[in-house]
Amino acid sequence: MNKTERVSRSGAPMVPTPLAQLTIVCLSHLRWDFVYQRPQHLMTRAARHHRVVYVEEPKLDAEIAFMETRKDRSGVTIAIPHVSASSPGSVLRELFDTLLRSEESDPLVLWYYTPMALQFADHVRPCAIVYDCMDELSAFAGAPPELPALEQQLLMRADLVLTGGHSLYCSKRALHPNVHEFPSGVDVAHFAAAKRVRCEPADQSAIPKPRAGFFGVLDERLDRGLLAATAALAPDWHFVLIGPVTKISPADLPQAPNLHYLGPKLYEELPQYIAGWDVAMMPFAINAATRYISPTKTPEYLAAGKPVVSTPIADVVRTYGDGGLAHIAGTPDAFVQAIRDALCEPAARRQALADAHLASQAWDQIWARVAERLRAAIIDRRLKTHAAAIHRSLA
pLDDT value at position 311? Predict the structure, then answer.
């Protein structure tokens, strides 16, 4: 019997009081040290009261399989399975089981960001399963063909489903009885520090102004055609892009004297860069990969005190564009005009609107609301399990 399946004398699994310390094992498709976003924000806050183990997707780089673990300064344990490309699925399962035993993971919550993790974790019986659907992963370039079927299985198993935005909520709410919309939040104090920066990073300081900037992953969601055309239409403006290049070739990024790619930066460094921008932009393509996104960077830009210009991403339009917090433009000509408008808008009015909107969007507040949903899900599973045990005893 797995240690997460302890039972009472009646035969019902013993689920601890929901307020007790939990072990949350987070199964993610994202590297912890890649780009600091939703999983890191939520798991670091969970780690203030619970044991948190963050399991990354496997690295296919070891003939002899092993699990690498280390402790992040936040208190989160990072676990990285190392296997070979030819390793059978049972190897990953054994590594995962060994990890659970070493972490004394009882009571256990499994927190999925990727349904692919079911391939090695579907046998574990925790006190609750959470599916935090932050993106429609099946729409991304290179998505595994089995991902949609595994997501269906995960939705059948999950006790609680969270979505990272309104569009995702609309697509999932009919698929599970306990789906809740939790758009990503912002660490206001972290990004508001941009308003006090006086010394720019060396690799940005020589770039002329005015500047429009972007930080995030540069992949198939970036509208490279729009970016190239916008840079050509506004040769006196300079466009700064910060972040790693993935799933596309760096050679496919448009090149021009006023386009500047500064590479990936640490989360701690971002306020220093955004401080030197006049406008923050989101030149996303309108395609399958962006249909359901709700970019975390939107509130981060606003917290930093910058006007925002975005292509018509549905969640950005609904949450920020309609409320006057972002300029929306879908063509190069319109994007240039939106930047002009953003440069001229009254900063005090924009900041007042932004502050009012962000007042309820702090990550601490979001984690508190998520934790309440988690407690309710644990209680609900306990009650259902107890009722089933009684039913079996009377049968």
Answer: 98
Residue 154 tokens, joined: 């995960």
How many C-beta neighbours within 10 Å does residue 162 have? 25
Q: Which helix (H) or strand (E) holds 280?
A: strand 279-282
Q: How far are the Cα atoms of 70, 83, 99 from residue 74, in angstroms, in the given order? A: 11, 27, 19
Q: What is the pLDDT of residue 286?
A: 97
C-alpha closest to that of 86 among 116, 109, 64, 69: 64
Q: Which of 325, 311, 315, 344 is nearest to 229 (CA)?
A: 311
The full set of domains in the chain, from first to last, is 3-185+363-394 (3.40.50.2000), 188-358 (3.40.50.2000)
Contact 2, 99 (CB under 8 A): no
> In this structure, are residues 358 and 188 in contact, taking their beta carbons and an 8 Å threshold?
yes
Rounded to 5 degrees, φ, ψ at 64 are: -105, 115
Q: Is the pTM higher than 0.85?
A: yes
Q: Are 240 and 271 in contact (CB under 8 A)?
A: no
Give the integer Cα–Cα distance in Å for 22 and 310.
40
Positive or negative, the Cα torsion across 153, 154, 160, 163? negative
**Contact in structure between 389 and 12 (CB atoms under 8 Å):** yes
- Measure the CA–CA gap between 219 and 212, rounded to whole angstroms: 19
Mean pLDDT, each 10-residue run in order, the chain (395 residues): 37 47 96 96 97 96 96 97 93 96 86 97 96 96 96 98 97 97 96 95 97 98 98 98 96 98 98 98 97 96 98 97 96 98 93 94 96 95 81 73
The pLDDT score that the predictor gives to residue 8 is: 35
Determine contact, residues 117/92, Cβ cutoff 8 Å.
Answer: no
pLDDT value, residue 387: 77
Give the position of tokens 């939990």: 22
Tokens 């045990």, residue? 389
Measure the CA–CA gap between 213 and 300, rounded to whole angstroms.
13
Residues in the chain: 395
Write down the pLDDT at residue 103: 82
Which residue(s) pair with 250 in the sheet?
none
| Cβ count within 10 A of residue 32 | 20
